[in-house]
Structures are given as structure tokens and as C-alpha cells.
Design a protein that fits this description.
Number of strands: 17
Helix content: 25-40%
Radius of gyration: 27 Å
Distance between the termini: 62 Å
Strand content: 15-25%
Strand order of the largest sheet: 1-2-3-4-5
Number of helices: 14
Shape: elongated
Mean pLDDT: 79
Largest sheet: 5 strands, mixed
Structural class: alpha/beta
Low-confidence stretches: 75-135, 404-418
Amino acid sequence: MVEIAVQREALIQVGYDGIVLGTYRADLLVEGRLIVEVKTDIGFGGGPERQLRNYLRCSDIEVGILLVFGLKPRFKRRSLTPSWASAAVATPEISAKTSAGVRVRRERIGGLLQRETTTEVTRYAVHPLRWVASSMADETAHVKERALADWFRQRGRVAIGFSGGVDSAYLAAIAVEALGPENCLALIGRSASLSGSEEDHAVSVAREIGIPIREIETAELADPRYAANPTNRCYFCKNTLWRTLVPEAQAAGFETVVDGTNADDLSDYRPGGRAAVEQGIGQPLARVGLTKAEIRELTRSRGWTWWDRPASPCLASRLPYGIGVTPERLRQVEAAEAALRRLGVRGNLRVRHHGDLARVEMDAEFVARYSSGQDLESLVRAVADVGYAKVEVDPRGFRSGSLNALEVVGGGATLSGH
């Protein structure tokens, strides 16, 4: 196992003919011999590459790596001595003569670091892809965070579609840091599909962050296309949401409106995201390439207690497609989940509404606890008290997006209410 010495924000002297002209800070300095500059796609042009080459020419460091992250990450390496660096990456072990007749030995160390030895000096080069995978995760997240703050500064004022979830809360917090609270606004859409506890949480988090709040009533249930609960229900929901929130934001002087879509969301089936794009809603988290895991870690590192809060989509997500969305059904689901929270269920929780049957999905530890005996009876009683005739604990536990037609779950713990 080879340990690599890596310095963040390393101070490097820039000089000419033995005279120190100044200093600059490199994003990373590896083994004192390799400069790594990390940029994002936002505003990327030839400047960073020229800057890196100039730093190499004006310092005693001969090799630089330029990493570019964004929606389509790409890798660029520039070296003032490409002959040895290229060979070191390409071949496990090489012996050769330089143009000056000096014997050179190149070898790969641990599959990660390459070393070149001559009679005068030992040089190191890093295998770029492997090094990025093993050493760059934490630094990359911070670089993306800086790019996010820059994105906000370029816009000056921003309104955020705010749910209080980890993504939108983190987004709002960075916006407030970059712009100040007077230039930010949290827009909370209130509707029958938002549970009271989630609304309270959103308001609490917004106040903790210090961002001004505006709660606005939406009326997606008035759209029969949404109420019919088709597979693209979220499209009609978000279409109504943004058509309501954007004019409010503009009236308050906010031309830029954003949401908490992250880079992982772009690969999922999210018809609601399409509605946001159609209405010009910005997605800066995705734009700088921040993933869900990175957002949680950055939030945790700042000491915010809600960094690991489970995702909690709207109450309509508990109804299988094709079962109409009504205020009564939404309130029944909300009441059942609230009862289970009072019972002690933590973490991920969904009460799937199948008419008279409530199918309860929980994290594995709670499935084991509430699958038999008095604990199961207590769970069934709590859910039955809000109007379900039959209650089932899904033995497969919580599964995000399992709002399909009613399934017969073999081996499930089932009891009739009352």
C-alpha cells in the first residue's frame, strides 16, 4: 500500500531566474511534484488550461493535471515533460535511454503511482483515473460546492422551491452564504398532498438556515389530469406548482427560480423534472454535478442535524397509479403514518393505500420488530384506527417507488383491523 502525500490549497511560489515573483494556491499538490487543478463545466474555457501551464513554467513543478467536472465530466492532463509522464502511465515497467544518454527506469507502484528513477532524480506521475477514483471524492464535492456558490453569485438573487428535504435545504443554505438572506427566498407550496409534519419541518429548517419564507397555496387537485393519478402524475403536479410559484417569485423581484434536483435525479424517471425544465426552473445542484451522497456528506460536515433525513415525497406517492387522488385518501395516509411515528417507527416509512388495505413499508429493523406478537398488534391497531380494515407489513421492507398495483406478498404479516 503506497501512501501519497496530498496538500489542499497548497501555497506555491512563482519565480523567474531565481527571483520570487509571488505565490498562488493550487487546488492540490501531490508529493510536492504534481499540481492538480479542479474546475467545473460552468464557464470552462481555455483560461484554466493556460493558467496551469503558466504555473508549471514559473515554478519548479513539471507536471500538472486539470480535472473538469460537471454534467459530463472529462479529464485533461498537460505536462511540460510529456515523454516520461506518458510512458509512466502507459507501461508497467520500462528501461530506456533519454536523448542525453541517461539510463531511465520507470515502474508502476501499486497500480496507482508511477515512479521514474534516473541517476539524478526520482519523479512521480499519478495514474489519473485510478487516482481520481481513490483520492478525489471528498475534494471533488468541495470543488462542486464552490462552483455552486459561484453560480449563485453570478445571478445575484434567487428563489428556491423549498421542501425542507436535504437537497433543497442544502441548496438554500449555500445560496444564503453566497448571496445573503436578503437576496434569497424559500418558496413552499402548500397543498393537500403535503403533510402537516413535512410543512412544519420545512418551515423549521428554513428558519434555521436564515432564509426568508413565502408559503403559497397550490391547487393541483383541481387538475383532473393530476387527480386521475396516471403514471406521469408528477408532471401535472409540478406543472401546477411552478405556474403558481414563479409569478409569485417574479413579483417579489426574483427572476431566477431553482429547485433541488441533483445529478442522480437526471438518470431516474422523473416527469416532474420535465415540467420544471419546460418552465425554465434552474437545477444548479445537477448543473455542477452534485450527487445525493455528496450533498448528504457536505451537509453532515457542516453540522446540520437533518443531513440524514429520509426522503419524503408527497402523500399522493402512497396511492398506486390509477387510484384517484382525493383529499380524504391523502389525509388517511397522513394519519396512518403519523400514528406509526408516534408508535416509534423511525427512518423510511410509507403506508401504501390499497382501498381498505394499508401496506406498511419500513426499514428492515422495524420490519423485524413489528412482524409478530404484541408489536404487530399495536401497529395494526394504530393504522386501523384511521379507517383501514386490513393492515399488512411488507416483509421486503421499504422500497422507494413501489406504488404499483396491489401485489400479493407471500409471507407478509397481515391482520384485520378491529
